[in-house]
Amino acid sequence: MIQTKKQYVAILERVEELLQNTDNIENQDTKGYIELNLLSDLVADYEELYYPIQKPSLTDVLKLRMAEMGLNQKRLSELLGVSTSRVSEYLNGKSEPTLKVAREISKKLSIEASIVLGV
To answer: What is the 3-state secondary structure (H, E, C) of the chain?
Structure first.
């Protein structure tokens, strides 16, 4: 287990070195392959503990999906069957959607239900 940030940085540097040789990635019989996998697991455990990935907020996901789909607030409100002011409240984090609207957000925008419901 990685104990310090200094160890973490040193191991990351070694992982980068090992990644330069494609045999270390593809050939399971090489020493570098085994070392790369062991060190990668150590790095993953350390990062999970000290740099956990936070779940995205509904606001962030809505804004991203709107950009991906080329939607503005008016078009999103029409798609969801709510007012533009209500969409504005969702985007500003001032209110949360009802269960019915949450279901529509999940289905029509292909957003994971757990993100929409905040669980």
So the answer is: CCCCHHHHHHHHHHHHHHHCCCHHHHCCCCHHHHHHHHHHHHHHHHHHHHCCCCCCCHHHHHHHHHHHHCCCHHHHHHHHCCCHHHHHHHHCCCCCCCHHHHHHHHHHHCCCHHHHHCC
* Letter string b/e over residues 82-110, b meaning 16 or more CB atoms within 10 A of that residue's CB: beeebbeebbeeeeebeeebbebbbeebe
Mark whether 27 and 71 lie in a shared domain: no
Same domain, 64 and 46: no
pLDDT in tens, 35-88: 999 999 999 999 999 999 888 889 999 999 999 999 999 999 999 999 999 999
Same domain, 13 and 46: yes
Q: Is the pTM of this model over 0.85?
A: no
CATH number of the domain encompassing residue 107: 1.10.260.40
Residue 70 domain boundaries: 58-117
